[in-house]
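Thread: Modeling a multi-component assembly for a lab meeting

Hi all, long-time lurker, first post. My supervisor asked me to bring a structural picture of a complex we are working on to next week's group meeting, and I have zero experience with this. I have the sequence lines for every component (352 residues in total). Could someone generate the structure of the whole assembly? Inputs are pasted exactly as I received them:
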Amino acid sequence: MNQRTHAWIAIRTIALLEDGGKSKDLVKLIKPHAAKAAIGAWIPDLVDAKRAGSQIGKHVLKMKPYKGKVLKERFIAEKEELLERLGKSRLMSSYIDNDTSLKTHWWNKPYKGDIKVPGQHLANRAMAMSVMMRDLLIMGDQKVDKLLPGAVRFAKNIDSKARTKAEQVALYFFMLSHFISDACMPCHADARKISAYNKGKGLHHELETRWSGIVKTKFDKKKLLPVSSSIKPDKILKDAKEVDARFGLKFKPKSIPNLVAGDVWLELINICRGSFAVASIIASPKPSKYPYSNKVRIVHLDKLFPENSSEKLKDLDRMVMHDAVLNNAIIWRHIWQQAIPAKMKKKKKKTA
Ligand SMILES: [Zn+2]
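Re: Modeling a multi-component assembly
Sure thing. I ran the full set together rather than chain by chain. Output:
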C-alpha cells in the first residue's frame, strides 16, 4: 500500500471508532490530531525510518511451504481452524470461506514465513509497538491522563515534559496502523516472486496503484502536510468516509469485535496467514500456474482475472480495505482497553 492509502486507512479508523460510540475517550484523544498525525501512517516506508529498523517495501510475513520437520504442526492452519481464528467480522473470512480453488490438501500443509531482518516482521513490529503504546499511555500527560480511566500514582513523579502527549499518541497509533494495514495486503504474506514489489511492475504494484486511484488525492502528503493545521478534524473524517462508496464499503461500527487471538502478535500472524491464503486464491499455486517454487517474476492483474475481472477485483478491493480499517479499530481499542485497570473496565461483553 502506498502513502495515500495508508493515510486514508488510519484516518478512516478514527471515524469507525467514533461511529461505534464505545471508544469515546480514545477518539477524543486522537481525533483532533488526525491530520498532523497522518505522516505516522507512512513513516515506516520512508528512507530515514530504516535507521529505526524499518525497511522500504519490506514489512512482511512472506509465507511458503515449510519443508522442515521440527514443529511442523505449528505451521498448519486448516481452513475451519483459520476461519475460527479470524472470526466472522472480517470480510477475509467470507472471502476464504467462499473459495473452492484451494482444496483440503492445500490447507493440510504447513506454511511458514522466514524473515531475515527481525524489524521487517509484521507481527513483531505490531506487537512491539502495541506493548510500548500501553506504557506510553500510562505515562501520559494530564490531557491523556484525564481521558484514560484509572489513576497512575507514579506519573506525578515523572518530569511533565517527559510524559506522553496526545499528539504523540495519535502519531504512534498511526505508525502502528502501517504494520496492521500491510498485513492485510496479500502480496506482503506471499513469498512468490510474483508478489515481490518488482520495481513498479506486476501484481503488487498494480494492486497498490489501483487502491490509491480509488482513494484519490485528498489524502496525498502534498495536501495533508502543508495545510494539515487548517483541516478541521470533522472535515477530514467526513472526507475519509466519502471514500467508502468508491470501495463499496459498509462498516458495522456498532459491532467492532474484540481481539480474537490472545495477543496482537498472534492476531497479526492469523491475519497474515489469511492474506497468504488470499494471495493463493487470486494467483493459483497449481503446478500449471504459479507454484511456490517457480521463478516467474511478473504477473499482471488482467491475467489473473481474465473473466468477470471488474467484479472479482471489486470484491478483493472491498475485502482488503474493510479489513485494514476494521483490524486497526480492533487493535487500537485493544491497546486502549489494556491500559485501563481491570476493575475499571465495564462488564465484559462480546462486542464493545
Ligand atoms: Zn510498509
